[in-house]
Design a protein that fits this description.
about 350 residues, Arc Repressor Mutant, subunit A, 2 domains, 5 strands, about 55% helix, about 10% strand, transcription regulation, HTH_AraC, Homeodomain-like_sf
């Protein structure tokens, strides 16, 4: 597993997160622990059940708990979704991966409960433990705590898991977005050009302006990128000549660009660019870009509460009215109606 370019401990305020984790534990009736991409805990264990505390303190049994945690985390990353399983005592546990932009940042380990339904055949016991006298004696000593474990239906478990997944992903994405904003503006503030004295030279002033404008465009694109999920991946062209255009389009979602500009970027004539672009995509340039921007708009409408005019601005439409008209052309309904249908 490759190291993440983000670090959970640097991204989120762990003290605030632990308070939220405690509250989520009370609401969901699950014990919760957050670990980094190495599986190392970055928070305390919120409301660890007495039964599990007793098992984890036992030198003979705790290695099985650790094996469960490690294997569940790997399985969750492999499946790229929450993994619900049975521990070596047939208790329900869950590994919920935190994955942003295909980067595995860590996981929320939750559970320590029993299912209301007697049939748990659909779940895998991730680690098996051979029975022995010492283990049986330990279980008997903790039997009262075992009986006191929270009981949920499988449907309740999946709803709690979805809540934890959505909330953790949102919080981490927002934290990354803020960090990106701060980092980019720090670059503006630390530019090697002294803006206070550059008025003496139009050339220097113009250079400063263009540097700041470039950083602002980079910032806007970065903020949009953090909000977009599936479907935002770059298109790899079968014709290498076109790849610079596709790279630019996907990296500058907040801009308007013309066929002539993209042809120049690819070092070919506009007519030749138009011909091979249509052959590659099955659509002419303007239709392809419009359809692509509407797909990005749908994702922003689904995953953020940004106003319609902000979505329009974020994707480089000249005005909100034109954005709504274009959206309706492809989807046969307005952005507002689309968002209401998606959220209902």
């Amino acid at each position: 597993m490759s190291k993440s370019r983000f670090n959970l401990e640097e991204i989120i305020d762990l003290k605030k997160w632990e308070k939220l984790q405690d509250s989520l534990s009370l609401v969901t009736k699950m014990a919760i622990l957050t670990v980094d991409y190495k599986g190392v805990p970055v928070t305390k264990h919120s409301f660890c059940q007495p039964f599990c505390q007793g098992v984890r303190q036992d030198s003979n049994l705790s290695p099985y708990c650790q094996k469960c945690d490690a294997r569940a985390g790997i399985e969750a990353v492999r499946q790229n979704k929450p993994y619900i399983y049975l521990c070596h005592f047939n208790i329900i546990d869950i590994a919920i991966p935190i994955i942003i932009d295909d980067q595995y940042l860590g996981a929320i380990m939750a559970g320590q409960l029993k299912l209301r339904e007697p049939d748990v055949s659909q779940l895998e016991q991730i680690v098996s433990r051979p029975p022995n006298v010492e283990s049986n004696m330990k279980f008997q000593a903790l039997k009262e705590d075992y009986e006191a474990l929270p009981v949920l239906s499988y449907d309740e478990v999946t709803k709690c898991v979805d809540l934890l997944l959505q909330l953790s992903t949102y919080i981490v994405e927002e934290a990354i977005q803020k960090r990106t904003t701060v980092d980019l503006y720090k670059r503006v503030l630390t530019t090697d050009i002294d803006i206070s004295t550059s008025a003496e030279s139009f050339e220097e002033t113009d250079l400063t302006y263009r540097k700041i404008q470039s950083l602002q465009q980079e910032l806007s694109g970065a903020l949009i990128e953090t909000k977009l999920k599936n479907g935002a991946q770059k298109l790899v062209s079968s014709n290498a000549v076109l790849q610079p255009a596709f790279d630019y389009i996907y990296a500058h979602k907040n801009e308007n660009f013309s066929l002539k500009e993209m042809a120049k970027l690819c070092h070919i004539s506009p007519s030749y660019f138009s011909r091979i672009f249509t052959k590659e995509t099955g659509e002419n340039f303007s239709l392809f870009v419009a359809r692509l921007k509407i797909e990005w708009a749908k994702q922003l409408l689904e995953t953020t509460d940004a106003p319609i005019n902000q979505v329009s601005d974020d994707l480089g439409f000249c005005d909100t009215g034109y954005f709504i008209k274009t959206f309706k052309r492809f989807e046969n309904l307005t952005p507002a109606v689309y968002r209401n249908m998606y959220m209902s």
